[in-house]
């Protein structure tokens, strides 16, 4: 009877050990994927079986509020820092910094100027400082030297590198002798085609189908590499897309003298730098110029955009209504789809799906903020988050019951704008988790020693009747 109890206890102890030491490390690996410009409702435009497969065996968030302005670089930097644009400093794809006296533009090499990026520390650097390795396949900013660092592995940006080649690199890094625990994968579509065709075009159907096939390819390759069930995979995007038209154009030349201002960024948020002594003239001329254009002095920019407290935000910004296009002159030409509008608009929202050992299965959540992703990833990687504008508490219901849970946040003041959560929270929850695992392990080890001693004692009287070769291993134990 006692012997049976011993065996039950032994099996329980072994199970506890295996859960504590073999399942948990898997929960600390993350692959973050961005399909640029994948609007939240593209999932339902055409059959997307691979996206739905991830939803069925993972989690899905219907509405993700991204950050203003809803452009590529600002939002990608938010996903990896958890900060609003005014705090991380990448306030647009095209910027001018009056302190640095430098410009930043997607079309130029000056995006490699470190100074534009160093208002924040992206997650790959924090991950590496914690002793881990990161790998990035063309994620915006990952080939820029930031705070003297690059990701441990990265690819120089080159849009002609295929999706398949990027996937191969990610898999190589996750399966190498010194595997990465954080991978970042970026793909330019469906943004590019969304701009050219406009999201309402029936030709967008095949574009979305193609992205679904690419996701299918990624899943297939991860399964082949035995990574599918061990990695936490997060599939998201930076922004959505809305339909534009030649009938909805606001032409600045109709209202402003070209010699009175510099147009830093154009549409749908025009960033206007008036020339010296011309501020009032430019502002007055534009303020009531067009019913679909809202013009703000910098200090009047709504708080909810978390946008005005940065030097790179120009003295006047003019924001177009959804679907309206700002051009300096009609001859400049427009794209049939665009984004950058108010982040409260559903059409600007991206997708969010996740799958892996840390996530629940077949779980749908109504809403989250894109700033919440950063503390979630830090939690999964078990690293201490830098100060950020998100909240792990807002998204911890996405985590499965076996995943480490976070303790509730406490409010704290900070120098950053927009209610930043203190980094101590993330630190505490990692400590709580590890203290839990350590205490659990100590209890199991102590129990194990007592059990073995007990077993040996109970076996000793019987040993004389046993053959020596059976008794020997027991005595050695
Ligand atoms: Zn775009």
UniProtKB/TrEMBL annotation:
Name the coenzymes or cofactors required. Answer: Zn(2+)
Q: What is its main location?
A: membrane
* Membrane-crossing residue ranges in chain numbering: 431-452
Q: Where in the cell is it found?
A: Membrane
**What is the residue range of the signal peptide feature?**
1-20
SUPFAM superfamilies in the cross-refs? Alkaline phosphatase-like
User: Which GO terms fall under molecular function for this chain's record?
Assistant: hydrolase activity; metal ion binding
What does the UniProt keyword field contain?
Glycoprotein, Hydrolase, Membrane, Metal-binding, Signal, Transmembrane, Transmembrane helix, Zinc
> A GO CC term?
membrane
Please verify whether the record's keywords include Hydrolase. Answer: yes
Lipid bilayer topology: Single-pass membrane protein
State the family it belongs to.
Answer: Belongs to the nucleotide pyrophosphatase/phosphodiesterase family.
The name this protein carries in UniProt is Ectonucleotide pyrophosphatase/phosphodiesterase family member 5
Source organism per entry reads Hipposideros armiger (Great Himalayan leaf-nosed bat)
